[in-house]
Amino acid sequence: MRAWNVAVQMTTVVESTPAREAARVLAAQDLPGLVVVDGKGRPMTVLAGTQVLRMALPSYCQDDPALARVIDEKAADVIFDGIGDRTVGDLLPRIRPELPAVSADATLLEVASVMARSNVPLVAVVDADRVMTGAITLDGLLDRMLGT
């Protein structure tokens, strides 16, 4: 089985995409992260869902998770207001991790190797021009490898 057999279409974002919109896509599609592409559709990096949370949560909650207990549930609904007008580009780390990407004819073992090495549960599948044609999530990969 090859990467193109497992890859699925996935919504991508660009650096100028509002962070709030990226959070909605993550939630709506139940994704571990989003592939950030350039203007030509070539993947540049992955925006992990945890990076969105990091920007939304107040720093004192990150420094001491026990302090998050003092926020009642009504107030918790406004946590994502902390993102404000930030964009995807604002959420990305300064030093970007290696982009996990494979060609469409990569084997599932190759996909697993790239995913494990990058420690990102999302791999972009690209064509010969490095344009993204789909993506493989950890869940999708494990489903295929385990035959479920």
Descriptive account of the structure:
The chain is of the alpha+beta class and 148 residues long. The chain has one domain (3-146): CBS-domain, CATH 3.10.580.10. Helix content is 38%, strand content 17%. Strands 3-4-5 form a three-stranded mixed β-sheet. A hairpin with a 5-residue loop joins β4 (122-126) and β5 (132-137). The model has no long low-confidence stretch (mean pLDDT 85). Residues 95-148 form the CBS domain. GO terms for molecular function: kinase activity. This is Histidine kinase.
Descriptive key words:
single chain, 38% helix, 148 residues, alpha+beta, CBS-domain, 17% strand
The CATH architecture name reads: Roll
Average pLDDT: 85
* Number of strand elements: 5
Query: How many DSSP H or I helices?
Result: 8
Please state the oligomeric state of the protein chains shown. single chain
Biggest sheet details: 3 strands, mixed
Q: What Rg is obtained from the alpha carbons, in whole angstroms?
A: 17 Å
Structural class: alpha+beta
Q: In CATH terms, what is the fold-level topology?
A: CBS-domain
Q: What is the overall silhouette?
A: globular
What is the first-to-last residue Cα distance?
14 Å
Name of the CATH homologous superfamily: CBS-domain
CATH class placement: Alpha Beta
The helical percent reads 25-40%
Poorly predicted runs of 5 or more residues: none
How are the elements arranged and paired?
Blueprint: H1 3-6, H2 19-29, E1 33-37, E2 43-48, H3 49-56, H4 59-63, H5 73-76, H6 88-91, E3 101-103, H7 108-118, E4 122-126, E5 132-137, H8 138-146
Parallel strand pairs: 3-4
Antiparallel strand pairs: 1-2, 4-5
Protein name: Histidine kinase
Domain CBS: 95-148
InterPro entries: CBS_dom, CBS_dom_sf
